[in-house]
Please model this.
Amino acid sequence: MFDFSVITSWIHALLTSWMPEGLAVFIECVLVGVCLLLMYAVIAIVMIFMERKVCAAFQCRLGPMRVGPWGTVQVLCDVIKMLTKEIITIRHSDRFLYNLAPYIVILASVLAFACLPVSRGLEVLDFNVGVFFLMAASSIGVVGILLAGWSSNNKYSLIGAMRSGAQMISYELSIGLSILTIVVLTDTMQFSEIVERQADGWFLFKGHLPALIAFVIYLIAGNAEVNRGPFDLPEAESELTAGYHTEYSGMHFGLFYVAEFVNLFIVSGVAATIFLGGWMPLHISGWEGFNTVMDYIPGFVWFFAKAFFVVWLLMWIKWTFPRLRVDQILTLEWKYLVPIGLVNLLLMVIVVVFKLHF
Amino acid sequence: MEITLELIVFIVLALFIGVSAILAVTTKRILRAATYLLFVLFGTAGIYFQLNYSFLGAVQLLIYAGGITVLYVFSILLTSSEGDKAPDLKGYKLVMGLLATLVGLGVCLWVTLGHDFAPEHFEHGELAVRTIGHALMSSDKFGYVLPFEVISLLLLACIVGGIMIARKR
Model:
């Protein structure tokens, strides 16, 4: 398995050889930031294209076909269109908060995105409280959505923002509980460590029953956390026009849109990392030849394959189920998912204490 | 004193915190004040991360930025109406406010300047989560199990109180 820290330490050595350490670290930070944002944008474009194609497939259509082969250039054209659109300023609104809100949402999303370990040696933020930090970072996004709804001076936006806030705060609980279940199994919160411990089997298999329950809860709660169907009622277009981003145009709307899709990727990436082994190839103990062959496939290919598989699962759910009502959403969370999650946590503790896992 | 990267980062964070804090108390719109408070909390978290205490930084982000600020914003959205602005402070209130600020500044300066800082006291590198967990849950000399349990009791009381207020008769 190729270790990318060879490249990063080579760059570090090169930079420190002809400039002071502080400046080198600063330049590296800028470089990492640029790479991160580039990857963020590319993933957003890929995700939007995938969404349109998957949606079309589930509705027996073809999706975008005219621009480029199989419509591949379509999303790029959409990006250019979005970039050149006018940004409308609305009257009687708090201009400062109105302009700030999309950036808070993006900030939360980028911070969470930086936590994902893409390959061995390619972790940007790898704290020993990594999982905890990820949840902290993603919880900031709610503030941006609430501010967007409030400062738009529009009742639909405000209702959408309140719904979204209530929903995201509630479902964060289930996400936390299901991640905690896996933390109990691994006894570490560092993402790189979590991936390393899955070298002899992914946690979905090692933790069997409780891990499976946690995975299902995580998928449901993750779908609700990023405000996607069947939990997309913050932006239910039939009743609220577009929810909290009704009044936004041009790239400000684009930022919300991009953040929503990348958040979906982040949720899937975290699911892939903590349940499906992240960049760790599929290893079956005893099958040495098989394991060696699997090791030849690079880590980032494994990571993206798993992450996009989970993305596809979530899109399948979105385009299959009808939208829930707001009281149904809160009932599902507080009366079903949270109690199940708590019992499941207890079950995992029993499994770990009596060493019933593989 | 030589200028290092750490010093520059600290100065940037300190300026950010200072300016946001002043804006938070001088702005007239309450939602803007909450937003500036969010910035102050971000800056404080940044300082914790600079000190390599990532656990406290993450807690700061999760509890204060992601929890308490959201609570503030929620309650502001539910209670205040569009275009609410705080009136100008006049006379007695202004004098008392300035006085309280000066007293607070004096106390802070007195404590900070009078404190004998131990040089390079903390170890570099992240503190293991295991250590923090053991400190939180142990009943030894430097254990925090009693405050931990008391806080959980307090939170339980708050939850029960909230249900009592919110439930339908």
Summary: Residues 4 and 10 of chain B are 10 Å apart (CA to CA). Chain B touches chain A at residues 4-6, 8, 29, 31-32, 35, 38, 54-55, 57-59, 61-62, 65-67, 69-70, 73-74, 77, 82-83, 126, 128-129 (CB under 8 Å). The domain at 5-126 of chain B is CATH 1.20.120.1200 (Four Helix Bundle (Hemerythrin (Met), subunit A)).
